[in-house]
Amino acid sequence: MIRGVTVFLAVGFFIAFTAGCEEHKEGETMEMPQIRERLAAYVPIDIGVPWDLLPDSEKAALDKLYNAAAIMDELFLTQVSVGNAELRREVEKRGDLDQIRFFRINFGPWDRLEADEPVLCGDPKPDGANFYPSDISVEEFEAWLKEHPGDREAFESNFTVVRRADDGALRAVPYSQEYNHLLKEAACYLEEAAELTENGTLADFLRLRAKAFLSDDYFESDMAWMDVADNILDVTIGPYEVYEDNLLNYKAAFEAFLCVRDPEESRKLDGLKGYLVKMEKNLPIEDRHKNLERGTESPISVVDLIFSAGDTKAGVQTIAFNLPNDERVREVKGSKKVMLRNICRAKFDGILRPIAGELVVADQRGYVTFDAYFNHILLHEFSHGLGPGRIVLEDGTETTVNKVLKESYSAIEEAKADVVGQYNLYYLINEGFFPEKLSKETAVTYLAGFFRSVRFGIEAAHGRANMIAFNYFKEKGAYIHDTASGLWSVDFEAIGGAVRELSHTLLMIQALGDYEGAKQLIERYGEMGDDVKESLARLESIPVDIEPRFALEKEYTLK
Hints:
The protein has 559 residues and is α+β, with helices and mostly antiparallel strands. It has a domain at 360-528. It has 23 helices and 15 strands. Strands 6-7-8-10-9 form a five-stranded mixed beta sheet. A two-stranded parallel ribbon has the order 1-15. Strands 2-3 form a two-stranded antiparallel sheet. The chain is globular, with a radius of gyration of 23 Å.
């Protein structure tokens, strides 16, 4: 049984909507005729636990790790909206299971597949979620820092929230203070898990991450996470990605992944690490912009997900990740790529392959393969760790790409990872690391994958990134639309050059810290045309994403 404040999380954390949403009278029934249609976008997938692979020590540690991960649900729920953490009373009182399920999937009353359209409330979701005052603008934020330059480091930190005092003054509050009681509880669970696991490197990470929860200094624990080795339990937990902060892309959201690692499959991919420096050197930009000083350890883990929580579980399900995001860690050790194999397979079989059957010309459908899909994801994650990170602007200012590109960063970074990932796939094929047949397979699988990704909504970073690449490739003649049949195909002669050109453009925006160039690229290529809308209309019978049903969650709920 989960202790303390987290006891309700596995059962459901569905809340009353007060601040941030219109209030509803007690007992009032809301008419939600579209909720069931919205829920049809998700196909439930049962996610089991391979208990036979876990030694008794790791089973005991997993008990504690699950409890810590469940707290990430509550933390993220609070970060999404100021009204979210007021608990689930109103939704549960209504007794409408569809509303309850909708809220749980979306971590709030807004539809994440429809650009955060309000569904269970009347108010729009603030761009800054609950990281900033709901009425703040980018202009006010920047004006405050201009008048109070000593506040810049704290205000731009990934691990603070910005709050407004009664007199209107702004102040930064560390996560360890804002979420103190929850982070203390999570830290206790991590320390208990560290005592139980027999893997020393995992125990080191868990102890250091517990300390970080209470200090807001995640550097040492990120370094320790990179060093975890020979582990069967693969654990990622903490504040990482900044996608939920649509105001400035500064604030990190809490999440957790509990996975079982496949050592043999992970070792098969170890050969890629030897190409990391070669891929950096091969980037289509001048050498002075390449990041050849960044660490090159770059471990790869192929895992099966057994439980996720927080940011990663909201709406669209993560299929892989590349962490940590701290440039200081990347400069020393590089970054770790984690591939969620069972989630990749579920999405390919249940969604991507059927999409290809509807939208790709018949003589190219055979090129849509799981190997191409998996390797594109893998190289996407590798490419997050390539290219400019810390940069020097023309005026001599030292900064990082994410800070200077502000709210445009996430879309540009995701586009870079996608397109440079394709560029690197072609490079590795030419180097003989991958077979030649993958060249056509990756091109067509990426095309089909575009239609899968933009169904998540182009307001989100990943969807906007895919739209940028798609429109660019179409403009260059690499993607061809047959208006008579409505089907799409790849021009194999044109796609390689288009990938190289767009890779150069995206990398140079980052290298120069070109905020205006980023906004212009998004404005020019980031919108959805009628041809794509017509194509997406043909996919109504195909789910948009999966909804994991974790056996681990059920087991602990029943304890």
